[in-house]
Structure formats: structure tokens, C-alpha cells
């Protein structure tokens, strides 16, 4: 641990000073970022500062620049907006304003500035850094700072964190706040959905996004909206006709040529319009105009809902809290590792990997999108967005609009694809099934659902063909619409093969958790004896435990985390409101500590107990000492409830109840403990938007995998890569064959992968929770 960052050039001052500020529009998760920067800085032996009110505070100086202590950010994870304030500051856009800002930083002895904001804020930060030597020279000339001060603050470290609900920054897949905002939008659309269905109405929903359609597109994907309007992808000319056609399509034969929407019996219509939506001539497409068309052309009872500022509101979702925390940690590391010749970094995320990107490149690319749109170069605008955006757009089109794909699969490549759920229900299973089915229909395949898992198949011949209307509404539903079951095919492999042959399946999609993966390994091995399984087979991991080998992320785990943190936030509040109390919360997750660890990061747990690490007396003793100290430091405003998260299988001996009792005994009346067991609440009700959108993207990729591997049975048999698990690994989405996974990568006894990326996060949970050994002052 780096305890003291000595600066020999600054006699009398031993510690590096790192300041953090939030700027531009507020975004949920900004507080988590500030908390992480403050606590990481202190833990690394530096002094932490906050600059209140964004650049305005920098220009004003004085009381706006405040030293931050460990306790100052206690409880901040569950707060919305930004507690250190934000502002749009005109003065900072001019050099004189920045000159005053530089003076205040030097006088406060601040070496590094972490700015959390949108592209405007980060542009300002980069300009500030590039001007820094000139600003200091001028301040010295004016006598505002001394020669000594000038030479000891020769360089200013700037690190950018992207905090913005629009998700409009290039080079990163997600910005802090975007998924929370999407959650709010989806909640609203889900509510509207019910009333639209009841009255058979149409709704036009306007969402934020002046230059970026991410929120609109993702909301469309997660709610199964009929049409979306985005700034960077204007619709074709005469789109009015096309929109009406899609909403009203008539076709007598649903299985061969998918009709959707009204004519097929759909009772509701949802159209999502980004506030910056335009047509190809750059004419704004407004919600009012869309409504008028639906009323005039289709005679639909149509209402407009403009969501406005509710999209910024509320507490951050689990993903944003984790993202902000990991990025805050990375920002402090970047400060400590920076040298004058390294350009200012922006902390990004690509798939599941936290990365550093040159800040100015990211800002330049972001601005270039707006420029392309202005010049009607829409292909260029889409190219500049991350590939993931384009992929999501294609997935939306392919699962929503008939005929959107110019090419159906050639006749001889068309397939009969079986979809089955195996294991416990997880959020997003239905969204994945719907997306797989609609994508199949669009490509000319025939999707079949096997209801109630393998027992359903062998006992009840439970196979039903899916069409557009059967899966209508599944995008937002929790649980498993086709029924799921834990049983493995080995219970009656012969019958499973017989049914596969009878239905002439030539591709299989298994959606589920560890059992689904296990089932796939069994079917793969059974290819030896049963030719019916010599077809491409793919497993789409869906489980709250996130314990499937071959992926770092399973759909359903985000829904679970959100349900769990909502629960934890509530009991934490109760813990702080009542007497001095610690809650020991029992988390699900089987023998995987993923959920407990990530929830620990999201709620700021004091300690997390996982099966991977186990529990021993020494740990308990240290944690109880830490609790004593922590309660002793709780004063006035900084009082906050305390949580310990224990995975259900972390230890046979130290049960949740026993840990609570040991704490009670040891506290000797100075504080008390309680247990809290959320149980099946963790499976979540409505799936989170992140699970829904990932489900759609993954499901489409799974069907593409099956298409690609449609080959004669002999070739499939000889090629083990035709049985695979789709997964996120680091910055990529990959297919890994079960043969590669079932050996070294799988811990069969503990039913989890042998290596898990999140194990590295345990140290961070401990550091930010101030667990024994972390310097906190
Ligand atoms: P959002 O994504 O919410 O709009 P943003 O960071 O892009 O966030 P802006 O209003 O563009 O929001 O910028 C916030 C502040 O950053 C501005 O008020 C200004 O102080 C500073 N800023 C923006 N652009 C520049 C610039 N080119 N030079 C200096 N400072 C700037």
C-alpha cells in the first residue's frame, strides 16, 4: 500500500492532493464516483478534496474547495443526483475564468483533478490541462503565485469520468447514469404499457437524447416498442407510410410471413421518440407529429408522454454504482501512475472491462457524431458510434420489424430451432426467448418452445411453435413464460433424442444457469450414441448466481442485484434510523459469491462473506473490531446503517443467525445486530433493462451461431465448437465450446467457473468499506 506520496519539491507537504468534481447535467452514480475517488485517495495515502458546484466552484475558490474525509462520503452510494453540486459555468469557457481556477487549485495545493461530467465538461478539462503551463506563467507574472508554487505544480493531472445520462460519449460502452436513466424510462413505459393495453391505445413517448439515440433505442429494445426515432439513424423517406404499415400489417399466415402489431391482434402501440429525432432532411420529428399521423392515418386513440426530468431522478441502479466505483478507483490509479507525457485519460468501459482512453480522442469522436448528423452523413454518424450501438440497432430492427432484413436465409438453410429453459427462473429469459423467436421468424426459420424443461418434453410432449403474437409482451415479463425445470436430459436421454428426431430439430438454444450448461455438456456427449443431437447447440447463460463457465455475465444477475440493493438500501435506512444496528444480510448465489460481492460494492457493505473465501474466526474478530471502531466514529450527519453481506453457502458453521449472535454478544450492548433474508425477492419481479437488452443482443447472436453451424450431421459431430456457450469475456463477446469449458474451466463440485473476474473486486470492497488494514484518515 502506498501510504505517503512524498513530494520532495514541496517541503512541508507530504501527501498528494486529489480533487474531484461533478459537472454538466447531474447523473445517478455521480455520488458513487465521488465516494470512490475520495476513499481510494485516502486509502492510497493522499488527501482528498471536492470542488463543489462544478467549474463554478473552481472559478470561485474559497469555500467551494473542501477537504474530504472518510466519513464525509458515508451513505452516498444510495443517493441520487450529485451531493457536491454541479453547474453550467460560463466563466470557465473563457481563459480569464480558467486563470482564476488555476490560481485556486495551486493555492489549495491540488495536484490532480478528477472531473465527472459529459463531453462539454471533459472538453473544458482538457483545454484547462493544455493551457496549464501558460496559466501558471501568467499567474506568476501577476504575482498571484510564487515561483516556487509555479515550479512545484508544473503539471496538472486531469482524469475524466464520463457522467451523463445520454450515453453519448464515444470510446465507452456506458456512461455513469445511463442505465439508471434507462431504468426510469422503462419503468414509465412498462406502466404506460398496461394502460395502453387496457384501452387498446397508442402512446408516443419522448425521451432525452439531443444528439444520441441510445436511451431511445435501448428503451425500444427493452420494452418491445413498435417504432423508435433516433437522431443518428433517421428513418427512410416516406417513413410515415412505413410506420403505419408496421403498426397495422396484415398477413393471413403468421408462421411463414410474420405479421405483427394491430392486425395480428396486438392491442397496444408504443412509439419512442428521442428529443433530437430528425428526418433525412434534418427536420425534427416531434412526438406531436407522430401522434397526428397515428390518429389521422390509423385512427388510433393516441396519447403523448414526455418523460422530462424524471429521467434524471432517483437513486443509481446497481450497474451505475458499480461502474462509478470501479471507474473512481481506476481514476485514482491513473492519477498516481500519470507522467507529464501521458495524455489525459478518460476512464471507459468496454463490455466488461474498465479501460483508459485518451480523453481528447474520445471528445473529438463524440463531437464528430454531431458534425456528421449536421452534414446529413448518417452512415458516418453510426460508424462513429461504438460497434455495440449498431449491433443493438440491428437487433432491434430484426426482432421488431418484419421484412427489415433484406435477406431471409436461403431455403436450404432454414431451420427448425428448439428453445428450452433449464434451471431456476432469471430476469431476461423471456426477453431472450422473444428475441430469438422473432429473429428466427424474420430469417425464415421456425422456432419451437419446449415447455417445462426436459421433463416437460419427455413426459408431456410439450412442444409448441412460436409466432409473433405468442411472444408479444414477453420483453418485459419476469419468470419463465415457457416454464423451466432443473432436471437434466440424462434422466431420459433416449426419449429426449426421440422427440428431437420427431420434431426434426436442427438447432437448439438452451437458456438457463449452471444446469443449462450441464445439460448442454450431456447432450454434447450423447452425440456419440444419438444422431438427433448432431445439430448445433448453444447455451445462453441466464441465472442470478452468474456462475456459468464461459461468461463473466449471465442475464438475470443484474435484475437480482437491483432487487437486492433496493432491499439493502431500505434496511440500511432502518438501521441508521433506529439504534446502532448492523444487519447481516443473507444473499443467494449458490456457491458463487458474485451477487454478494457486487451487492457489497453497490451498497457499501462493511464486509462480504463468500463461499470462495469462506469464513473463519479471525475474519469475524477483525470485522467486529472494525464495527466497534466504525460505530465509535459515527457522528451526527454521518451516521449510517451498516451491512454485512453473507452468501447463503459461505460457511456451514457460521450461519447468518450465528454471525448475528456472535456480533450481538461481542458488542456488549454498544450496538446490536439483526439478520435479514431477502430470499426469492432476489429473483426480481420485472427484469432490469440491462438484462432485457443484453438478452436481446445475445439471443440474436445465438441464432446467428446456429445458422452458421448448420452443417451435415457428420460435420457437426466432428466439430466440437458446434456445442458452445455464449459469453462476455473482458472486452469481447465470445463463443466457447463445451469441450474447452468442461475440463479445466469448470469446478464441477462447486458448480462455478474456476476463475472469476470479480474475485479481484473483493479487495476493493474491503478498501472502500474501510475493512481492517485500510488507512482511513
Ligand atoms: P451533459 O452531457 O449533461 O450535457 P456536459 O458536461 O456536456 O454534460 P456542458 O453544459 O456542455 O455539459 O458542460 C458543462 C460545463 O463544462 C460548462 O458549463 C462549462 O463550464 C464547461 N465547458 C464546456 N465546454 C467547454 C469548453 N469548450 N471550454 C471550457 N469549458 C467548457
From TrEMBL:
<feature type="binding site" description="in other chain">
    <location>
        <position position="751"/>
    </location>
    <ligand>
        <name>beta-D-fructose 2,6-bisphosphate</name>
    </ligand>
</feature>
<feature type="binding site" description="in other chain">
    <location>
        <position position="648"/>
    </location>
    <ligand>
        <name>beta-D-fructose 2,6-bisphosphate</name>
    </ligand>
</feature>
<feature type="region of interest" description="Interdomain linker">
    <location>
        <begin position="402"/>
        <end position="415"/>
    </location>
</feature>
<feature type="binding site" description="in other chain">
    <location>
        <begin position="309"/>
        <end position="312"/>
    </location>
    <ligand>
        <name>substrate</name>
    </ligand>
</feature>
<feature type="active site" description="Proton acceptor">
    <location>
        <position position="166"/>
    </location>
</feature>
<feature type="domain" description="Phosphofructokinase">
    <location>
        <begin position="416"/>
        <end position="706"/>
    </location>
</feature>
<dbReference type="GO" id="GO:0048029">
    <property type="term" value="F:monosaccharide binding"/>
</dbReference>
<feature type="binding site" description="in other chain">
    <location>
        <position position="275"/>
    </location>
    <ligand>
        <name>substrate</name>
    </ligand>
</feature>
<dbReference type="GO" id="GO:0005945">
    <property type="term" value="C:6-phosphofructokinase complex"/>
</dbReference>
<comment type="pathway">
    <text>Carbohydrate degradation; glycolysis; D-glyceraldehyde 3-phosphate and glycerone phosphate from D-glucose: step 3/4.</text>
</comment>
<feature type="binding site">
    <location>
        <begin position="88"/>
        <end position="89"/>
    </location>
    <ligand>
        <name>ATP</name>
    </ligand>
</feature>
<comment type="subunit">
    <text>Homotetramer.</text>
</comment>
<feature type="binding site">
    <location>
        <position position="674"/>
    </location>
    <ligand>
        <name>beta-D-fructose 2,6-bisphosphate</name>
    </ligand>
</feature>
<feature type="region of interest" description="N-terminal catalytic PFK domain 1">
    <location>
        <begin position="1"/>
        <end position="401"/>
    </location>
</feature>
<feature type="region of interest" description="C-terminal regulatory PFK domain 2">
    <location>
        <begin position="416"/>
        <end position="777"/>
    </location>
</feature>
<feature type="binding site">
    <location>
        <position position="581"/>
    </location>
    <ligand>
        <name>beta-D-fructose 2,6-bisphosphate</name>
    </ligand>
</feature>
<protein>
    <recommendedName>
        <fullName>ATP-dependent 6-phosphofructokinase</fullName>
        <ecNumber>2.7.1.11</ecNumber>
    </recommendedName>
</protein>
<dbReference type="GO" id="GO:0006002">
    <property type="term" value="P:fructose 6-phosphate metabolic process"/>
</dbReference>
<comment type="similarity">
    <text>Belongs to the phosphofructokinase type A (PFKA) family. ATP-dependent PFK group I subfamily. Eukaryotic two domain clade 'E' sub-subfamily.</text>
</comment>
<keyword id="KW-0547">Nucleotide-binding</keyword>
<feature type="binding site">
    <location>
        <position position="201"/>
    </location>
    <ligand>
        <name>substrate</name>
    </ligand>
</feature>
<keyword id="KW-0021">Allosteric enzyme</keyword>
<dbReference type="GO" id="GO:0003872">
    <property type="term" value="F:6-phosphofructokinase activity"/>
</dbReference>
<feature type="binding site" description="in other chain">
    <location>
        <begin position="543"/>
        <end position="547"/>
    </location>
    <ligand>
        <name>beta-D-fructose 2,6-bisphosphate</name>
    </ligand>
</feature>
<comment type="function">
    <text>Catalyzes the phosphorylation of D-fructose 6-phosphate to fructose 1,6-bisphosphate by ATP, the first committing step of glycolysis.</text>
</comment>
<dbReference type="GO" id="GO:0005524">
    <property type="term" value="F:ATP binding"/>
</dbReference>
<dbReference type="GO" id="GO:0016208">
    <property type="term" value="F:AMP binding"/>
</dbReference>
<keyword id="KW-0808">Transferase</keyword>
<keyword id="KW-0324">Glycolysis</keyword>
<keyword id="KW-0479">Metal-binding</keyword>
<feature type="binding site" description="in other chain">
    <location>
        <begin position="208"/>
        <end position="210"/>
    </location>
    <ligand>
        <name>substrate</name>
    </ligand>
</feature>
<dbReference type="GO" id="GO:0046872">
    <property type="term" value="F:metal ion binding"/>
</dbReference>
<feature type="domain" description="Phosphofructokinase">
    <location>
        <begin position="17"/>
        <end position="335"/>
    </location>
</feature>
<feature type="binding site">
    <location>
        <position position="119"/>
    </location>
    <ligand>
        <name>Mg(2+)</name>
    </ligand>
</feature>
<dbReference type="GO" id="GO:0030388">
    <property type="term" value="P:fructose 1,6-bisphosphate metabolic process"/>
</dbReference>
<keyword id="KW-0963">Cytoplasm</keyword>
<dbReference type="GO" id="GO:0042802">
    <property type="term" value="F:identical protein binding"/>
</dbReference>
<keyword id="KW-0460">Magnesium</keyword>
<feature type="binding site">
    <location>
        <begin position="118"/>
        <end position="121"/>
    </location>
    <ligand>
        <name>ATP</name>
    </ligand>
</feature>
<dbReference type="GO" id="GO:0070095">
    <property type="term" value="F:fructose-6-phosphate binding"/>
</dbReference>
<feature type="binding site" description="in other chain">
    <location>
        <begin position="588"/>
        <end position="590"/>
    </location>
    <ligand>
        <name>beta-D-fructose 2,6-bisphosphate</name>
    </ligand>
</feature>
<feature type="binding site" description="in other chain">
    <location>
        <begin position="680"/>
        <end position="683"/>
    </location>
    <ligand>
        <name>beta-D-fructose 2,6-bisphosphate</name>
    </ligand>
</feature>
Amino acid at each position: 500500500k502506498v501510504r505517503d506520496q512524498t513530494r520532495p519539491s514541496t517541503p512541508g507537504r507530504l501527501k498528494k492532493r486529489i480533487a474531484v468534481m461533478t459537472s454538466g447535467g447531474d447523473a445517478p452514480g455521480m455520488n458513487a464516483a465521488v465516494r470512490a475517488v475520495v476513499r481510494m485517495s485516502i486509502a492510497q495515502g493522499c488527501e482528498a478534496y471536492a470542488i463543489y458546484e462544478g467549474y463554478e466552484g473552481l472559478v470561485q475558490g474559497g469555500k467551494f474547495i473542501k477537504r474530504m474525509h472518510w466519513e464525509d462520503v458515508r451513505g452516498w452510494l444510495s443517493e441520487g443526483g450529485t451531493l457536491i453540486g454541479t453547474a453550467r459555468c460560463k466563466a470557465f469557457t473563457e481563459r480569464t475564468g480558467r486563470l482564476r481556477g488555476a490560481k485556486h487549485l495551486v493555492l489549495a495545493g491540488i495536484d490532480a483533478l478528477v472531473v465527472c461530467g459529459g463531453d462539454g465538461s471533459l472538453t473544458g478539462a482538457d483545454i484547462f490541462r493544455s493551457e496549464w503551463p501558460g496559466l501558471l506563467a501568467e499567474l506568476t507574472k501577476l504575482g498571484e503565485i510564487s515561483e516556487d508554487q509555479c515550479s512545484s505544480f508544473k503539471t496538472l493531472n486531469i482524469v475524466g469520468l464520463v457522467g451523463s445520462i445520454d450515453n453519448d460519449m464515444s470510446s465507452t460502452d456506458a456512461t455513469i447514469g445511463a442505465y439508471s436513466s434507462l431504468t426510469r424510462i422503462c419503468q414509465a413505459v412498462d406502466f404506460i404499457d398496461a394502460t395502453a393495453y387496457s384501452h387498446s391505445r397508442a402512446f408516443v413517448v419522448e425521451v432525452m437524447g439531443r444528439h444520441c439515440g441510445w436511451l431511445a433505442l435501448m428503451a425500444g429494445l427493452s420494452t418491445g416498442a413498435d417504432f423508435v426515432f433516433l437522431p443518428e439513424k433517421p428513418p427512410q423517406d416516406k417513413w410515415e407510410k412505413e410506420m403505419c404499415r408496421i403498426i397495422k400489417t396484415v398477413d393471413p399466415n403468421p408462421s411463414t410471413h410474420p405479421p405483427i402489431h394491430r392486425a395480428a391482434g396486438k392491442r397496444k402501440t408504443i412509439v419512442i421518440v428521442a428529443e433530437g429525432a430528425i428526418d433525412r432532411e434534418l427536420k425534427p420529428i416531434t412526438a406531436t407529429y407522430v401522434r397526428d399521423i397515428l390518429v389521422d392515418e390509423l385512427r388510433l386513440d393516441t396519447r403523448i408522454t414526455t418523460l422530462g426530468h424524471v429521467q434524471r431522478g432517483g437513486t443509481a441502479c446497481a450497474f451505475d454504482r458499480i461502474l462509478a466505483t470501479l471507474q473512481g478507483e481506476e481514476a485514482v490509479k491513473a492519477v498516481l501512475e500519470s507522467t507529464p507525457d501521458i495524455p489525459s485519460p478518460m476512464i471507459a468501459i468496454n463490455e466488461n472491462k474498465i479501460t483508459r482512453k485518451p480523453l481528447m480522442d474520445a471528445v473529438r469522436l463524440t463531437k464528430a457524431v454531431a458534425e456528421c448528423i449536421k452534414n446529413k452523413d448518417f452512415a458516418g454518424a453510426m460508424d462513429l458510434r461504438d460497434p455495440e450501438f449498431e449491433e443493438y440497432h440491428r437487433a432491434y430492427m430484426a426482432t421488431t420489424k418484419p421484412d427489415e432484413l433484406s435477406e431471409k436465409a436461403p431455403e436450404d438453410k432454414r431451420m427448425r430451432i428448439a428453445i428450452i429453459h433449464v434451471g431456476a427462473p432469471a430476469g431476461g429469459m423471456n426477453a431472450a426467448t422473444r428475441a430469438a423467436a422473432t429473429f428466427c421468424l424474420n430469417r425464415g426459420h421456425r422456432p419451437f418452445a419446449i415447455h417445462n424443461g426436459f421433463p416437460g418434453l419427455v413426459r408431456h410432449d410439450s412442444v409448441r411453435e412460436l409466432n409473433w403474437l405468442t411472444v408479444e409482451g414477453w420483453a418485459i415479463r419476469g419468470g419463465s413464460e415457457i416454464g423451466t425445470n432443473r432436471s437434466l436430459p440424462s434422466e431420459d436421454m433416449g426419449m429426449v433424442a426421440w422427440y428431437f428426431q420427431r420434431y426434426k430439430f436442427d438447432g437448439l438454444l438452451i437458456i438457463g444457469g449452471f444446469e443449462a450448461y450441464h445439460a448442454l455438456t450431456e447432450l454434447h456427449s450423447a452425440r456419440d450414441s444419438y444422431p438427433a443431437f448432431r445439430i448445433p447447440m448453444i447455451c445462453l447463460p441466464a441465472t442470478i448466481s452468474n456462475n456459468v463457465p464461459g461468461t463473466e455475465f449471465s442475464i438475470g444477475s443484474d435484475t437480482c442485484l437491483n432487487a437486492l440493493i433496493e432491499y439493502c438500501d431500505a434496511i440500511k435506512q432502518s438501521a441508521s434510523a433506529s439504534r446502532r444496528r448492523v444487519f447481516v444480510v443473507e444473499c443467494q448465489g449458490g456457491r458463487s459469491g458474485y451477487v454478494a460481492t457486487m451487492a457489497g460494492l453497490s451498497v457499501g457493505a462493511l464486509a462480504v462473506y463468500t463461499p470462495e473465501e469462506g469464513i473463519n474466526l479471525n475474519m469475524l474478530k477483525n470485522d467486529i473490531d472494525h464495527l466497534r471502531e466504525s460505530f465509535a466514529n459515527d457522528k451526527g450527519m454521518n451516521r449510517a446503517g451498516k451491512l454485512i453481506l453473507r452468501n447463503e453457502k459461505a460457511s456451514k458453521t457460521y450461519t447468518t443467525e450465528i454471525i448475528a449472535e456472535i456480533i450481538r454478544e461481542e458488542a456488549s450492548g454498544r450496538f446490536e445486530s439483526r439478520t435479514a433474508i431477502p430470499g426469492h425477492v432476489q429473483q426480481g419481479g420485472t427484469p432490469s433493462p440491462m438484462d432485457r437488452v443484453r438478452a436481446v443482443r445475445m439471443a440474436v447472436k445465438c441464432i446467428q451461431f446456429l445458422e452458421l453451424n448448420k452443417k451435415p450431421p457428420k460435420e457437426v459431430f466432428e466439430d466440437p465448437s458446434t456445442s458452445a456457450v455464449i459469453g462476455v469475456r473482458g472486452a469481447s463477446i465470445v463463443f466457447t465450446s463445451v469441450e474447452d469449458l468442461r475440463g479445466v474451466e469448470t469446478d464441477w463440485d462447486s458448480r462455478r467457473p474456476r476463475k472469476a473476474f470479480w474475485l479481484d473486486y473483493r479487495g476493493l470492497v474491503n478498501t472502500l468499506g474501510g475493512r481492517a488494514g485500510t488507512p482511513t484518515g
